[in-house]
Amino acid sequence: MTAFPRRPSRDDSALHYGADYNPEQWPRETWREDIALMQEAGVTVVTLAVFSWARIQPTEDTWDFTWLDEIIDMLSKAGIDVDLATSTASPPAWLTMKHPEVLPVTYDGHILWQGGRQHWRPTSPLFRQYALEVTRRLAERYGHNPAVVAWHVNNELGGANVFDYSDDAAAAFRAWLRGHYDDLEDLNAAWGTSFWSQHYARWEEILPPRQAGAQNNPGQVLDFQRFSGDALRDHLAAETAILHELSPGVPVTTNLMLAANYQSIDYSAWARDTDFISNDHYLLPGEGGIEELAFSASATSAIADGEPWWLMEHATSAVNWRTVNPAKRPGQLRRDSLTHLGHGADAICFFQWRASAAGGERFHSAMVPHAGRHSRVFREVTALGRELRSLREVAGSPSLPARCALVFDYETWLLFQGDSMPDNRIEYREELVRWYRVFADLGLRVDVVCPQNDLARYDFLAAPLLHLVPSTLAARLREAVESGTHLVTTYFSGIADEHARVYLGGYPGALRGLLGVRVDEMRPLLDGTTLMVDGGGTMANGLAGSWCEPVEIVSPEVEVLRTYSDCQDTLKAGLQPGTPAVTRRTLGRGSAAYVSTRLEHSALSDLLAELIARAGITADLPTPLAGEVIASVRRGDQADYWTLTNRGRVDLGPADDVAALLGGTVLGGAHTLGLDDAIVVRVPRR
Ligand code: GAL
Prior knowledge:
With 686 residues, the protein is an alpha/beta fold. 30% of the residues lie in helices and 18% in strands. The strands form 5 sheets. A 10-stranded mixed beta sheet has the order 11-10-12-13-22-21-20-16-17-23, sandwiched between helices. The radius of gyration is 26 Å and the shape is globular.
């Protein structure tokens, strides 16, 4: 990170608070009301011009900045800062009518037409030219405007158009491949193109993995996913270069999508592409949503390398794009915001300021709902604005790493999108969130990290379903274990290299040596098959399913922690009762455990509790908080700031009593830690 936006102009705050603001959807009278309401709500920053290209450049030869000049001036006079978007997310109709060749093409060959948004090819040289022109004009005009505290490149790069299969994409893909492989034979070998007569004799024969009559080549698909992410990064870099040139000192960001509803990009590669990290997150409604939110917020913190980041978008209440869009309950808007803050967010922003009256998002919640200021949501929005001002001392403090981490590998996630796996039911991210929940149940903080992060800093590392393990990662995991990290991984880990090629000689491939076990056959199980694992009297028994394996022990340091029990389904699965199900090997100062089946919740919880206890780690939280809250910690100069989010099962009573359990005091004036609450506790550092 080279720069972070300066503190808000409103001098009574240090945390930024605001929303996407789309004044172009409203008449001038509404603008005046908007500014008054923003002041009432404590808004410090708004993101302008995200989808304003057609308004700024109504025809190819005309430009209109008057409205933008006017609203920036009004905001600035009111002390409200601007995060100015480059407007390139949604090209105007004149452009795509004149140049339909900038429109993206789907996997099955359909064109994504105008009339929605994000209808542009990341690799179109023509689109790039137009997009950079609008970026340049904006940067020239506003690059030195003191109201602009940050630049916002495009919007959610790679939403609808992440995978473009057009001819432009084909040409750029070939160029990308030439840069990544020594020669064509190197590529043929990596992709295994001897299979199904897929050999390439000339670079020109290579296409994006378009819809074919049978499964696409997995190596090709994986490279295309990487290429597609890089194509967007290239667009980001091109806009950023202009902004840096014409608006020096004003930090640049782009809003990432680390959330459950997106699965397209390896964001771990984007960590150094912008001056600061920002993220969009939308709560999963129903049970477990808050843990998923914390998981995503922690993953964002890892991309930001523990430094503060911005929550660029979340919702005050319902979204509009699920089958059913439940409203948030009273308090949840605050709870969600503070949970992000606890994981490092120094800006709490929403999509959007005022709920649209027309257009595809007219039923999406906002800070000012259709009902206007006399509404529950606006009251909660205003209360949160006040509370954030009283939390100002948290701003700027980095996240304090936990002792435990969960490894989330984006490339494994991408690869699981494909078919032809032994078990196509595997939901990698959901499975990791399930593990996250178990850590929370045990009263432990856990960081969600990516393989590029410093893994050896953690005392305990969980890496379930870590399918794609290049030899370099296998070596780093081994080093971490030898130097004292306690690792646990599962079935279907270590199987493939960076080209999705299977390691030979037995599973779990690249991790076989480290784990000291060998498996000659994967055994996914049909739904309804229930296995028992046996802890041998001293350790807990438990239920398992989905997968099992005939695990063979190959290293003398391996201890068996669970075996497959003698039950009907074990025999049906073709396993001998007594076969090792979970093992643990000591190595150097650490250990490496292997779980060959999918343990049900309580069995997983029992196992992790045992492994963590043996690693000498105790709960981060005292009773009665352990299990009932998600905790995150930011390290200030004088104090640690603990954010405690109630997981919604038990009312934890007066906030002061809760804070006292941690030896701290409540910051921000919260009274209770009820079911939909979160509190921030200031714990002085001794
Ligand atoms: C985001 C997007 C916003 C808005 C929001 C609705 O993906 O960046 O512009 O559409 O979703 O939830």
